[in-house]
């Protein structure tokens, strides 16, 4: 189930179809539009300001087409299941299982829900239709590519679990897709949708067919830190050794980490554009309506307040970590394991994780 993509949000660098699966010191909104070329000027300049956020009382506006599309896809999936499968796939919305999450292999962290391996083909197609209804086209393709990398590890690419929390169409409800290197969470309350937190990883970073699932997530950040170092901004690297893991791990709620590195207000336009490309690459995996809302909050809180910090080597295939953080969100990226061919990355929202801002 694919919705038309609104013109206001598109990827700066569209992800290629690589797999077989369907200026001034202050960071102005003009700079944001240069970095996020898919955001229409009228939308970015005229939409949600801090005053507007206060007036609406929520940072998540109604997106009825998206909410109903996800709900219809979830209902169709559930209708295909028999009673034993339903018992595995469904939990009450308030169950602690909804915030029990991870991205490691099943042997290290057993999952609850209905695995793709236990579904009939038509049920798997409905599960993937639910994923497609919940993400952008690029996000759906990236998730399927991450799953396909399990073959390189000798794992089953269907070792992923679908779990529904509550009743689609009721208020609130949600669902999750999770397995090795992939964790997606969606919460729906009426016409409003949250899609955070989310985890994206890759091992190997480039497989034997040449598939590179998370290229710009890594390379845009490397280009940024090298540019900063070339400009004499040694403070962009906050420690010489990589952290080897992301600090927030699988906590259900997180607070901002210590700000490290450089503030975007203090870097040049090209460097700001690279920082926003990182943001755009991650948000571009989400449904456009959700991506726009998240970016609006980042913008309203102050794009020039974002901080970028790097740890480890700036050379390819050497251990490294980076952190991009603002008043509303945190992105952690680590590539330190397996000769730096093993990415872990997580996007956290300080208010909206697991639909916290909807409750």
Summary tags:
single chain; 359 residues; alpha+beta; 13-stranded mixed β-sheet; 32% helix; globular
Notes on the protein architecture:
This protein has 10 helices and 13 strands. The longest helix is centred in the first third of the chain and has 16 residues, at 64-79. The protein has 2 domains: 29-51 and 203-355, no CATH class; 64-199, no CATH class. Strands 1, 2, 3, 4, 5, 6, 7, 8, 9, 10, 11, 12 and 13 form a 13-stranded mixed beta sheet that branches. The chain has helices at residues 29-35, 41-46, 50-56, 64-79, 83-89, 121-134, 137-148, 215-230, 269-283, 288-302, and strands spanning 90-91, 114-115, 160-165, 173-179, 182-189, 192-194, 198-202, 237-239, 262-263, 307-312, 320-325, 329-335, 343-349. It is of the alpha+beta class and 359 residues long. A hairpin with a 2-residue loop joins β5 and β6 (192-194).
Order of helical and strand elements: HHHHHEEHHEEEEEHEEHHEEEE
Gross geometry: globular
Mean of residue pLDDT? 87
Task: State the end-to-end CA separation.
Answer: 27 Å
Helix content: 25-40%
Total beta strand runs: 13
The total count of helices amounts to: 10
Radius of gyration based on Cα positions: 20 Å
In terms of topology, how is this protein built?
Elements (H helix, E strand, L loop, with lengths): L28 H7 L5 H6 L3 H7 L7 H16 L3 H7 E2 L22 E2 L5 H14 L2 H12 L11 E6 L7 E7 L2 E8 L2 E3 L3 E5 L12 H16 L6 E3 L22 E2 L5 H15 L4 H15 L4 E6 L7 E6 L3 E7 L7 E7 L10
Parallel strand pairs: 1-3, 8-10
Antiparallel strand pairs: 2-3, 3-4, 4-5, 5-6, 5-7, 7-13, 9-10, 10-11, 11-12, 12-13
Helix pairs in contact: 1-9, 4-6, 8-9
